[in-house]
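User: I've been trying to design a sequence by hand for this structure and keep getting stuck. Would you show me what you'd pick, starting by listing the structure so we're on the same page?

Assistant: Good idea, let's start from the same input. This is the structure you sent:
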């Protein structure tokens, strides 16, 4: 099992910034088995969608809607993945979920609310 705990959500005005963190915990075997980590979001009435994903340090992909504004990074020593969100827009409002893939299984955090006011 892998446990993921997100933090850093909140309320911010349009144009502002937030930094989300997701700390992974579990056995050493499971932590070392994590391939990808990423962030997804789900707005009310919409399906959950990919925001950004990272494999290792350098293999990264972003949703088109956040390219140039969001940056994902990973600190393997701390078993933590970050999402730096700049130039936030009201349409970025959603619950943001951390995801980790390990041994062909997906693990999810509990989610953190991000609200961007206009």
């Amino acid at each position: 099992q892998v446990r993921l705990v997100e933090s850093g959500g909140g309320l911010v005005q349009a144009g502002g910034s937030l930094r989300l963190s997701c700390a992974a915990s579990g056995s050493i075997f499971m932590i070392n088995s994590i391939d990808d980590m990423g962030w997804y979001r789900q707005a009310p009435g919409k399906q959950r969608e990919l925001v950004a994903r990272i494999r290792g340090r350098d293999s990264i992909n972003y949703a088109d809607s956040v390219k140039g504004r969001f940056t994902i990074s990973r600190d393997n020593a701390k078993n933590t993945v970050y999402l730096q969100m700049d130039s936030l827009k009201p349409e970025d409002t959603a619950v943001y979920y951390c995801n980790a893939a390990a041994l062909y299984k997906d693990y999810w955090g509990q989610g953190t609310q991000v609200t961007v006011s206009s």
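That's my pick for every position. To get oriented when you compare it with your attempt: The longest strand covers residues 18-26. The longest helix spans residues 28-32.
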